[in-house]
Automatic annotation (TrEMBL):
<keyword id="KW-0808">Transferase</keyword>
<dbReference type="Pfam" id="PF00583">
    <property type="entry name" value="Acetyltransf_1"/>
</dbReference>
<dbReference type="GO" id="GO:0016747">
    <property type="term" value="F:acyltransferase activity, transferring groups other than amino-acyl groups"/>
</dbReference>
<protein>
    <submittedName>
        <fullName>Sporulation protein</fullName>
    </submittedName>
</protein>
<dbReference type="InterPro" id="IPR000182">
    <property type="entry name" value="GNAT_dom"/>
</dbReference>
<feature type="domain" description="N-acetyltransferase">
    <location>
        <begin position="1"/>
        <end position="166"/>
    </location>
</feature>
<keyword id="KW-0012">Acyltransferase</keyword>
<dbReference type="InterPro" id="IPR050680">
    <property type="entry name" value="YpeA/RimI_acetyltransf"/>
</dbReference>
<dbReference type="InterPro" id="IPR016181">
    <property type="entry name" value="Acyl_CoA_acyltransferase"/>
</dbReference>
Length: 166
């Protein structure tokens, strides 16, 4: 498995093969995260991912099948992705910037192979290279597999995010 930055020509594949399935899985976990039916979700996602790929303070890394182990045409070559952003802390706090892991997704057929761990480690490396002190992320309370992965890598609950309908 190779972990490397997303290439501009791969944005379509990222959206189709990874982001849309990720968004659908999150919608299955919680209706609050369901995709809008009246929007051109794919076009919006392409625009947003293209902006992210070009942003100075954001990096998207992808896991790609190793050379010689390319999947057949029925399988995707992108096996997972992580998006990480460098976020400065407000100057009133005695802490440095944070590498915020915005999204992490591993294709179902690649789960259990350490892909998520490798992607997170690459995001951490990118954050360290930029001078970030910590890595932070949010995870859905009902996403037990993701929580287990994060906790196994040393992530601890620092805050609880609560919301309610109005």
């Amino acid at each position: 498995m190779q972990i490397r930055p997303l290439r501009a020509e791969e944005v379509d594949a990222l959206v189709d093969d990874l982001w849309l399935p990720f968004a659908e899985e999150m919608g299955d976990i919680d209706d609050h995260d369901a995709l809008a039916e009246d929007a051109d979700v794919r076009a919006e996602a392409l625009d947003y991912r293209t902006e992210q790929a070009e942003a100075e303070n954001t990096r998207m890394f992808v896991a790609v099948a190793a050379a010689g182990a390319e999947p057949d045409s029925a399988e995707r070559s992108l096996r997972g992705y992580v998006t990480v952003a460098d976020a400065d802390s407000p100057p009133v706090f005695a802490r440095g910037s944070v590498a915020k892991v915005k999204e992490l997704y591993v294709a179902p057929e690649a789960r259990g192979e350490g892909v998520g761990t490798e992607l997170l480690e690459r995001a951490h490396e990118w954050g360290r290279d930029r001078g970030c002190e910590r890595a932070a992320l949010s995870v859905h309370a009902d996403n037990d597999a993701a929580r287990s992965c994060y906790e196994s890598m040393g992530y601890e609950t620092r805050y609880l995010k609560l919301d309610r309908p109005l």
